[in-house]
């Protein structure tokens, strides 16, 4: 695939929209003909990022909005998940495996770790009171390329 393709998706910070976001991103990336493993990795990372925005960014307040930006360049997809929620006070602490700011919700504290492990590149920026932005990149080993 040549060129550049972009998409932007904005939706209410409602837990039921997590599945919608996962499917929408999968549909966008399908043009690269990813393997099932690549697609599942991407969907899992998106699920974690969107869930974090809803639960932590907005404290499950459905009036907030989550935005996903997607960019395909060649065989690489970059996904950015953004919220304008409360932000993260201590990013280093939040990125520690098993740390959760919501133990009463039985959160595993593995969201950032999962995103980092399932994607080729992962970066998070957050400012208290101004939201969080998570950028994830993955190179897709196109099945089409294997047979051409």
UniProtKB/TrEMBL annotation:
Instruction: Give the catalytic activity.
Output: L-threonyl-[protein] + ATP = O-phospho-L-threonyl-[protein] + ADP + H(+); L-seryl-[protein] + ATP = O-phospho-L-seryl-[protein] + ADP + H(+)
Q: What is its EC number?
A: 2.7.11.1
Q: Which Gene3D superfamilies match?
A: Histidine kinase-like ATPase, C-terminal domain
* A molecular function (GO) term: ATP binding
Q: Which Pfam families match?
A: HATPase_c_2
Give start-end ranges for the coiled-coil region(s): none
Question: What sort of enzyme, by top EC class, is this?
Answer: transferase
Keywords for the protein's UniProt record, in alphabetical order: ATP-binding, Kinase, Nucleotide-binding, Serine/threonine-protein kinase, Sporulation, Transferase
Mention one GO biological process in which this protein takes part, according to its record.
negative regulation of sporulation resulting in formation of a cellular spore
Q: Which residues does the UniProt record annotate as the domain Histidine kinase/HSP90-like ATPase?
A: 37-142
Report the sequence similarity comment from the record: Belongs to the anti-sigma-factor family.
Protein task: Binds to sigma F and blocks its ability to form an RNA polymerase holoenzyme (E-sigma F). Phosphorylates SpoIIAA on a serine residue. This phosphorylation may enable SpoIIAA to act as an anti-anti-sigma factor that counteracts SpoIIAB and thus releases sigma F from inhibition.
Q: What is this protein called?
A: Anti-sigma F factor
- The protein's organism comes out as Paenibacillus albus
- Species lineage: Bacteria, Bacillati, Bacillota, Bacilli, Bacillales
């Amino acid at each position: 695939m040549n060129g550049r393709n972009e998409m932007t998706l904005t939706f209410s910070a409602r837990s039921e929209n997590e599945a919608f976001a996962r499917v929408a991103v999968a549909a966008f990336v399908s043009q690269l003909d990813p393997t099932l493993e690549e697609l599942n990795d991407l969907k899992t990372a998106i699920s974690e990022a969107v869930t974090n925005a809803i639960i932590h960014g907005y404290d499950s307040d459905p009036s907030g909005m989550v935005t996903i930006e997607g960019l395909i360049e060649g065989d690489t997809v970059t996904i950015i998940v953004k919220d304008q929620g409360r932000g993260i006070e201590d990013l280093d602490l939040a990125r520690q495996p098993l740390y959760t700011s919501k133990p009463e919700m039985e959160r595993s504290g593995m969201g950032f770790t999962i995103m980092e492990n399932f994607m080729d590149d992962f970066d998070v920026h957050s400012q208290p009171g101004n939201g969080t932005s998570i950028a994830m990149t993955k190179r897709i080993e196109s099945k089409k390329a294997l047979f051409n």
